[in-house]
Amino acid sequence: MVAIIPRRCPPAGGGGTIGGMTAAAVFAAVAAGAGLYPGAAGNPIRLGHAPQAFAVAPDGRHFAVARDTNWIDVWDLPAGRKVQSVRCSDGDRVAVLAFSPDGKSLAAGAWYTGVLRVWAADTGAERFAVSANENGIRALAFSPDGKVLAAGGEDGHVRLFAAKTGKPLAALHERYGREGYVTAVAFHPTGRLLAAASSYDTLGHVWRVEPPGRVRAFDGHSQAGPEGHSLAFTPDGRSLVFAAGSDRVVRLEVATGGVRWSASAGEPLTAVAVSPDGRAVAGCGPFGQVVRVWDADTGAELAKLRDRQGPVVAVQFAGGALVSAGGAGVVRVWRVPVKPAGRSAAADLDRSAARLAGADPAAAFAAIRELAADPAAVRLARGHLKPAARPHVATAAEVRKLVAALSGEDFDARQAAADRLRKLAPAAATELLRARKVTADPETAFRLDQVLRDAGRLPGDVTPAEARWLELLERVNTPEARAMLKELAAGDPDAPLSRDAADTLARMGRRR
What we know:
Structural class: alpha+beta
Low-confidence stretches: 1-41, 221-227, 341-347
CATH superfamily of the largest domain: YVTN repeat-like/Quinoprotein amine dehydrogenase
CATH topology of the largest domain: Methylamine Dehydrogenase, Chain H
Number of domains: 2
Distance between the termini: 26 Å
Number of strands: 28
Number of helices: 9
Strand order of the largest sheet: 1-28-27-26
CATH class of the largest domain: Mainly Beta
Strand content: 25-35%
Largest sheet: 4 strands, antiparallel
Helix content: 10-25%
Radius of gyration: 23 Å
């Protein structure tokens, strides 16, 4: 579908500000396409100008690029030709572009006025225009279902809007601290979480979308520079790849915030992308002429793709290829080598299982790779994962009584109820999560979040150990592993383990 941008249009796209300003990765999902050769490294597309903002349509056949402050061009990528060119009448600078997951909507953020606009991509009809940030928009992302649009801006706020109407939904936080502005936002594949990063701050944050609330902060890199960060979730949603303004790309575990691996690019990195199959990570920066590709499992460098005509300012995977946009106005499609999945000899099972459930994310990740090569992996997982059952009737009744006491007037009674819930949490986690989902009282919600975190759970999510065992089963992907996932998915429907097992099965089915 060609994205036709109307005369009054603003920008659209998937990732961030590039060109002479802060570089940002384009995060739009792109389907594998056989006809990408006109943009191949040996036959590049020459834009004739430096890209100001850049986005690729979800079908992988078109991309949008901003230029000359308020002009936007739409290109046919397989044909290597421009198909649409419009000038935005508001005179503001196009800052960021984003296509919706279905390719039917195109969103744009204004650099100075902070106006967010969304159009029908096929007709150019404007759906809405709303003031999203008084100091300018720097990052945009659609939720995976296309219903929510997140906008991060110069004032350090992240706000959520209904993608069809522009109705404000929530503000996920007030400020990042100091004077940092939001440089990147990315939705979790389930749409339940959103990650954001800012300049002038080495910390990123993971937020729960509904009900809104911060889940955790994570450290990108202690040497992060003021020109910002870029981030992307892996397709399975268990990791977050984070590029600081320094020379590091880091793979973080979402469940714990711990580092699985960290790699150096030898130069500042401001853009990062993850391949659709989750096996490769690419990154680039505004000062280098190289796109670096790392093995997503280990962080080992797979390739250095050099564009000798200028710095590479944006990267995006398109199936088995990688699309880059250069500061000299050149768009290229690269064929990226991907290291075959390794098969290591089986380690001692008990030792590997202990590392998998341990506190060190890097050691846990290594244990998953080792166990995935062992025929006993599924049998071992059965000893650690059981379908979620509803709590005993008496336990459920006690939990409901204690949750009601959390909002009482007596502080000591509230504290005693919270302490008792901590003791019950291992056997009644599902009931606690169910109560957290429906409560409208801020005090009760705060205390339930504390109880769940003390029990090693994110509110509404599986434990880190459970997430890792599910990841192991997904990697094994045998009939036996799928049968176990079906058993887990058939547990208590309100249990996070049941839901995540079903999500894992669906993901495996799409790959087959």
